[in-house]
Amino acid sequence: MFSKFSTTAKNWKIVLILVLCLFVSSAIALGIYNYKDSSKIQAVEKEIHALYADEKDVYIREDISQDTLDQVEADIGKVFFMKRWKLQKDFQSAKEKYEAAKLLNQIFDSKLALKERKDSDSVLSFREDLTYEKLADIQEKINFSRQDEFTDRVYATLNESATDWNQIIHTEDEVLAFKKSKKSDLSPQEYLTEFFQLEEEVGRTQRHPQSVHAQEALKEVAIEMGDTLQLDDEDYNFDEELMDKISNSPYLNDGKKGDERKLVALTFDDGPNPDITPDILDVLDKYDVKGTFYLLGSLVEVYPELVKETLDAGHELGNHSFTHANFEELTDEEILEEINSTQKAIKKATDGYEPKTYRLPYGAGGKRAVDLIEGMTSIIWNVDSEDWVSDSAQEILTRVNENLQDKSILLFHDSHEHLVPVLESLIPALQAEGYEFVTPEEINYPYYYY
Ligand SMILES: [Zn+2]
């Protein structure tokens, strides 16, 4: 009984030792496993950190690939399941940010990362193919499980985009409504005030290509207003603030905002001249460009064939009065006689062509003359070659180049021989700079007299 007991006790001891061994060995095994697993976790943590552009894991890098993301996800799967939870949360957050950044790039015409956007404070414009439906869809798709500086910026950007979009639609409606409205009851001040309000609104969203309709409508309003009001007319007594706005308004002064084209109109006054005009026609023909000739009725009667030849070569003809009188010194009747007799002479020389535009001799005559001459547009100039001042082609070229604007109406006289070498040099230079040669009317210069 006793020995039986001692045998049993002995067995117990063995069992105890065995259990102890098992415990120790599994503790060691678990320790090793744990050690190995925590280095695995650290490796995955590093992988997740590498998805970010900054130390604090806030701004996601946009240049990572789907493969990289898949690799991180696969590596998380290899970690002991009890310890995956935190890694999965971190990875999920990175993935959401990556998706959001990709979606934002479908809104904006830029590949800048959000961090760079923030740092550079750059203003982004919508992609041309963005639609309202697409914007709403993207807004719906973007969701974050955590909140930080990045997600705040994304939400703010989305809100700004929606606001801009609504603003574009609203502004377009407003400009169109103003365009259609009757303005005859408006005083020039009210007309301009309304216009500048619209100009400011259009300006707020004009970086987005979707605002092009509002811009075009406003352009038409500006042209109509330029036709209705003589904005440099002292009779209006505009206050200083309004005068400032007039001279700084891009839509009024540039003719067309958003029209980045470089336009030039070559105009030649005081002809026809049998010694000079044919040479000028040759140069224009050589470079395949068209000009506009402001003719004196008295000379048209002497050289009608030259006038016909000019028209047949594809150039525009304009009225520059009959005797080159200063309209300032003429009566209303005399002014109309100067214009009408020249129209008649040109019509006769060309078998029926009637100029649509005229140029006041010396640009003189003011609002009185312009109001008097109905049914035709007064064309002045914004670049004076002063070709009558000097005989040096180089001097004239320098002056033209110094005064050249994106929308230029150039004044020449086909009464000066040295004009040919000027044009020989100027035309190819303008062509190389991308200038289009147009009629002066196409430039929409808002002034009609000097
Ligand atoms: Zn003249």
Describe this entry's structure for a reader.
There is one protein chain. With 450 residues, the chain is α/β, with parallel strands linked by helices. It has three domains: 103 residues, no CATH class; 88 residues, no CATH class; 181 residues, Glycoside hydrolase/deacetylase (TIM Barrel). Helices cover 57% and strands 8% of the residues. The chain is built from 18 helices and eight strands. Strands 1, 2, 3, 6, 7 and 8 form a six-stranded parallel beta sheet that branches. The protein has a two-stranded parallel ribbon with strand order 4-5. Strand 1, helix 11 and strand 2 form a beta-alpha-beta unit. Helix 1 runs parallel beside helix 3, helix 7 runs antiparallel to helix 8 and helix 16 packs parallel to helix 17. The chain is elongated and about 150 Å long. The site of zinc ion has 5 residues, from strand 1.
Descriptive terms for the model:
450 residues, alpha/beta, TIM Barrel, 3 domains, 6-stranded parallel β-sheet, 8% strand, binds zinc ion
